[in-house]
Structure prediction request, 213 residues.
Amino acid sequence: MSPKLITPGEPPEKTFLTDGLEGLQHNVLTGTLEGLVKWARQKSLWPATFGLACCAIEMMAAGGAHYDLARYGMEVFRASPRQADLMIVAGRVSQKMAPVLRQIHDQMMEPKWVISMGVCASSGGMFNNYALVQGVDQVVPVDVYVPGCPPGPQTLMHGILTLYDSIQTGDLTRRRDANGGGAGIEVAAVDGQPEPVSLGTPSRGHVTVLEQA
Prediction:
């Protein structure tokens, strides 16, 4: 196929990559209704503005310019639960906060998804006492568990993308039906491991460097 010659002054040919929908030569898309619904659900996740503890700082960092959560169309954290369909439980859940969390979850529109961010939300973490809920799955059904204390923005975004893929493939709804609740998908931490902490101890004007095991 020979390349098309463009004469000077002639406007370039429109393509989908340069002109979007106007560049489509045939404005007809075919597919199944189920696939279209899954695609719409995947691309329309709006998180609720909801944070509980230090994990919420990492969630805010994920929405900042450095990690740019807006690449996935999720930069709009909705202040009203009736406009959100994704709850990110970022932090420990106290017994007093559990009814509030459940009420916010009930007010969110269907279908709705839940991500448990951090070990405190997933299992109570280091706070094994009467004041805190030992796992948010006792209050709301959890679809994705994100590990870490706290998990960094990379791990949170990994969990969000896992949720994306599970919605698109239908694996999430199949897991929900099998579990009778949340999908319960566990993801791996992808944040970089911290460097060993060096402690300096003065010894006759010199410093002895000790590496923490």
